[in-house]
Amino acid sequence: MASAIDAQVTSEDEKTFQYQEELPPLPVPDLGETLRKYLDSVKPHVTEDELRQVDFLCEQFASGEGKILHEKLQAFAKTKKNWLERWWEDVAYMEGRLPNPLMNMAGPAPYIYDVWKPQAGTMIPRAALMLHFVVQFWQFVRKEKIRPHKDTKGKPFCMNQFLKLFSTCKIPGVQMDHLVHHFRTESEGPSPTHIVAMCKGHLFSLQCVDGAGDTLTAPELQSQLQKIYDKASSLPPAPGVGFYTSLERTQWAGIRSRLLAVHPENFHSLQSIESSMVVIGLDDGSPADMDNMAWEGLFGDPKNKWFDKSMNFVAYANGTFVSNCDHSPMDGMMLVFSTYYVHCKLLECKGQWQGHAGVRKLPEPKQLHIHLDPPLMDSLQEAKKQFADLRASVEVKVFIFTNYGKKYLKSQRIHPDTCVQLALQLAYYRMYKKPAPTYETATTRKFYHARTETVRSCTPEACKWCQTMASATASESERLRLFQAAVDKHNAWMEDASNLKGCDRHLFGLAMVAREEGRPLPQLYQHPAFFKSGGGGNYVLSTSCIGYTTVFGAVAPMCPHGYGVFYCINDDKVTFCVTSWTADKDTSSKTFTNAIHNALTDIRQLLDTPSMARL
């Protein structure tokens, strides 16, 4: 029987990467437009006196230093199809020294809802079937069969990030990390065909493709995974070298150098891990609710994770799954797309293998050995202590709002994402009596090798609406009028951001020109308003809509007094995953989700008033 999801995801007529060279280069925005947008975004967070200062700095910047930097950026952009690509990867991801668990994306697998309820003793067969479909997706990318993504007007999106889903790893450096990409399409040449399985801290390499290049069947993968689990169970406890990958990056870089020096076998084992398609952990834990699963995804036991990998999956004893993925090589939508594919395949087969049940004689899984000397053992114990502190530092709360979703909002002619963003603004304003500088991700994939731009969702219009919602004397018609104004502003800024006409990436590029030329950082970037409005990694709400599928996830907050908010929107519900720091007593993921619930409820009440028809 033909697979509906295969027909949806793949194409026989178009190759995955065929439009890459036709994509337009990343544009350099107009400097005046960028500064006007920046000034507008600053307004909710500063005093009138500070706003006058920023206005003056913008005028100076536009006619002086900023003009010079802008012209240099324009000249540089003529030599590159994407002037931002290297700078963004280096500064946003490679130069940072924070531990990877604080930077990675994670989430529960959505299969728990409608395919596989938690059930003891199901880990191995379920992991095998899930892995079979993951490798099938790998085959589609390798054969360039994934249908090219396009915008609503049929214009192609950049597909470059799909090349980084598999066999990609971040390598720690003393001052700066770097990415290694081992994946190749069939037209480019051979690509690694093994995964690495981690079980009880032991590591094994497992071939997932046979000699003819076909994916091993689920029964074959089950047989191999069972061998790995049995072998790991028969061995003495492993040290758990995955903990190293949870360390601050410079620490981990020094340890990795020592690993390579103490024993020649360590090089081959690390190479196998770093080049593997994915890493899968077989874990004896049994997370049973969404809060626990999301937290396990972010901060679960590193003895069965390798935080540097582009894709980690962890299968648990009760048949539940989580993922943990490095954010450096790609954005969340690549992972959402591949996870959604696997989910749809599992739904099609009702969670049971439908093919041939026979198991061929296959090469045995190969155990990977990593040798440690006494200093490395000491470092490992320290890594375990540090990770215990790290995992206790974040509160995670999953909240599912079921009163309405995309279907209702579409009927009201309100963009669903815009509604959620305004609900976040209202929730925060009610809790803290002030606006929150907010980062929302917008995709810029219509351009060559482009990734994202920032939508500064805390607009002056959103703030005015929040104030009116908090006012006991405001009329419903006034609230509706200001709500519509806030909706229109957010929609316009999202559209602008998708064309790289926000302000963050352009300002970042100008700062990078100054840095590379040895110029001092302009005063515009040093004024308190820059940080108060979110610049320099100070967005109090770090948010992202991860689409309209079944997939959702989590990310740690960006700043010490902030929240991380990922959400997905379905026809009749919105699923949120909210994170906050336990050390900050003024933040609470649980309290914030309650505030989101109330905000969304009040928006529905507002939209259902007869006054709405008159707007």
From TrEMBL:
The lineage of its organism: Eukaryota, Metazoa, Spiralia, Lophotrochozoa, Mollusca. One of its GO terms (cellular component) is peroxisome. The keyword Oxidoreductase does not apply. InterPro entries: Carn_acyl_trans, CAT-like_dom_sf, Cho/carn_acyl_trans, Cho/carn_acyl_trans_2. One of its GO terms (molecular function) is carnitine O-octanoyltransferase activity. Keywords: Acetylation, Acyltransferase, Fatty acid metabolism, Lipid metabolism, Peroxisome, Transferase, Transport. It is found in: Peroxisome. Residues 26-597 form the Choline/carnitine acyltransferase domain. Its EC number is 2.3.1.137. The keyword Protein transport does not apply. The active site is at H327 (proton acceptor). Gene3D superfamilies: Chloramphenicol acetyltransferase-like domain (3.30.559.10), Choline/Carnitine o-acyltransferase, domain 2 (3.30.559.70). This is Peroxisomal carnitine O-octanoyltransferase. It is an enzyme of class 2 (transferase). SUPFAM superfamilies: CoA-dependent acyltransferases. It catalyses: octanoyl-CoA + (R)-carnitine = O-octanoyl-(R)-carnitine + CoA. Pfam families: Carn_acyltransf. Pathway: Lipid metabolism; fatty acid beta-oxidation. GO terms for biological process: fatty acid metabolic process. Belongs to the carnitine/choline acetyltransferase family. Its main location: other.
